[in-house]
Amino acid sequence: MLMNKIKKVLIANRGEIACRIIRTLKRLDIAAVVVYHSLDADSPAVAMAGEALKIDGPTPVAAYLDIDGMVAACKATGADAVHPGFGFLAENAEFAKRLGQAGVTFIGPSPGNIELMGNKIRARSFCMENKFPLSPSVTEDDRGEPFVQQAGKLGVPLLIKAAAGGGGKGMQIVRAPDDLEAAVQIAKTEALRAFGSDRIYAERYEETPRHIEVQIMADHYGQVLHLGERECSLQRRFQKIIEESPAPGLERDLRERMCALAVEIARRSEYRNAGTVEFLLSPDGNFYFLEMNTRIQVEHPVTEMVTGIDLVEMQIRIAQGEPLALRQDDIETTGHAIELRICAEDPQNDFMPTTGGLLSYSLPQGDGVRIDHGLAQGMAITPAFDSMLAKMIAHGQNREEAIQRIKKAINATWILGVTTNADYLARLVAHPDYAAGRIHTGFIPRHHGDLQPPDLSVDQRNLLLAAAALGSDEIANPEFEVKEPYASIGMWRN
Amino acid sequence: MQGRIELKGRCYDVSVYGRSPGQRIQIGDGLPQAAVLNRLDSGEWEIQLGGQRAKAWLQVKGETVYIRAFGQTFTLSVVNPVEQAALGPGGSRRRAIAPMPGVVVDTHVAEGDTITKGQLMLTIESMKILTAIKAPLNGRVAKLHFTTGQSFDKGAVLVALGPEDK
Lengths: 494, 166
Hints:
The structure holds 2 protein chains of 2 kinds.
Chain A: E1 8-11, H1 15-27, E2 31-36, H2 44-48, E3 51-54, H3 60-64, H4 67-77, E4 81-83, H5 93-101, E5 105-106, H6 111-118, H7 120-129, E6 137-139, H8 147-154, E7 158-162, E8 172-174, H9 180-195, E9 200-204, E10 210-218, E11 224-236, E12 239-245, H10 252-268, E13 273-281, E14 287-293, H11 300-307, H12 311-319, E15 336-343, E16 345-346, E17 352-353, E18 356-357, E19 360-362, E20 369-373, E21 380-381, E22 388-396, H13 399-411, E23 414-416, H14 422-429, H15 432-435, H16 443-446, H17 458-474, H18 486-489
Parallel strand pairs in A: 1-2, 1-4, 2-3, 4-5
Antiparallel strand pairs in A: 6-9, 7-8, 7-9, 10-11, 10-13, 11-12, 12-15, 13-14, 15-22, 16-17, 18-21, 19-23, 20-22
Helix pairs in contact in A: 5-6, 6-7, 13-14
Chain B: E1 2-7, E2 10-17, E3 24-27, E4 33-39, E5 45-49, E6 52-61, E7 64-69, E8 72-79, E9 94-97, E10 102-107, E11 114-115, E12 120-126, E13 129-134, E14 139-144, E15 151-152, E16 157-162
Antiparallel strand pairs in B: 1-2, 1-8, 2-3, 3-4, 4-5, 5-6, 6-7, 7-8, 9-16, 10-12, 10-15, 11-14, 12-13, 14-16
């Protein structure tokens, strides 16, 4: 591998992650190019980047998924490298391959790494061959009996997943054997729609495991490091909303075994650049390989806050052929970090995405609190893209201080014009079981009742109504009075 | 001003009397109380109602008021009465248009009926409010686009009226 210093990076992404990558590029004095769909023309990423190139597609998302378009954008702008961020083309082996053919450096793993670990069934076969621990599972490729029968033998509860999946799509929990056949059909249909492949697999489902992942960095010379673990058990709709590092209450020996296994998986797969190995930690203390994410993760800032390492910088250095400058012993973690994902969604409506306009907002930072966002006042929140608006990350000397800081920051946060989960997140981090570290993937459904908004007193309710009545008149001055011809025909029901 | 405001799935009748700064607000069957809304230097608003007061962040867009107060964020809808249609040129095309999605709960006239101004035509329910759709003028029911039990979208034409003498 020759050293090949990167001079100009095209960011094949948008929103907060595009802004976050640009910040590191600026610090390293590397030119940044963003591509953008017209919906994002006024976004901060476009304003921050030295150069911006408009892209188009049949849908806004399709514009960011257009491999030919991205390769052409590199040619047009003279970018010699691409950072894919997460989502979109980040785990697309074909994209990495095409960039290589065009002489553009892909800041991420090799196409072979993505092909092996990006597909969940292939990654599981790889782990099985290497005798890495896996939860009991069957895949559609297993020979012999039909899939439904084999899956049935695993016993309920079962979790059906898409081979090409991610983000909770194509996942079905089966709690009664009679529901299996229907769930398989739904999972296949969803998987086909979301990922273009209906291959699925089934694994034993646990109601209260923990989801713990290990951050890996590997260079081109066979050196593999881990940057500790992240606790990602707080999830809704199979998607994380709170992550932290280190994992609370994780015994030192268990942590070391998990990190060592993650390093070993990366080594055996000849992995390079940033990756995350996800494990399921059972209440009985056993842990299993879940999947590997071949990209920078949404939750990477918690690792950055406790290690003091800029993961995007490390990715760039590895991609341009530098050997890792650190050894495992050089990596020290300090304190505790917690990340909240602030999303345009309605916790009172099963966390369904919401839309609206960002009329005004305040996301307090400082005092150990970092905000990663790509927001601008007046921005439309459309269903075209992911619902995540911002990430709030707090660091403290220990978990208690990190919780104090994140609580203070999220309680001072307000976002008006679109329904968000910010108030819900504030209630989550204030929950006594969260403070006690009693967390698992079933936390949100189990504490559903406790996490509801408190009832309003009559005085509070009346103050809100009065504020709305006076505010709607004074601030927006709408035509509130019933005017002719309406006055003659409309009526208030008194 | 008299209106109806929806908060957390419930509707409240709210009347505002007088002009700022001497306004009084009546909520439901309660007694009217002095009410003041002030902008603070921080950009926050302070609402006072009778002896109660609270600070809030506040934004208004159209008929929606967004308020952050008491550790929660609220979306309140200031519900307008049915936006009955404007009369077309020459008075030949007259329509009642739905201001928001809803359902017809009662039909009081039939197509072809002669009607007089103010006569009850339909009762609809939108956002949990029952509203009477009355005839805007003397005429004839040309077309009932929706009857009892049928739901409609915002902007749907509920009733079309024709001239009386046909």
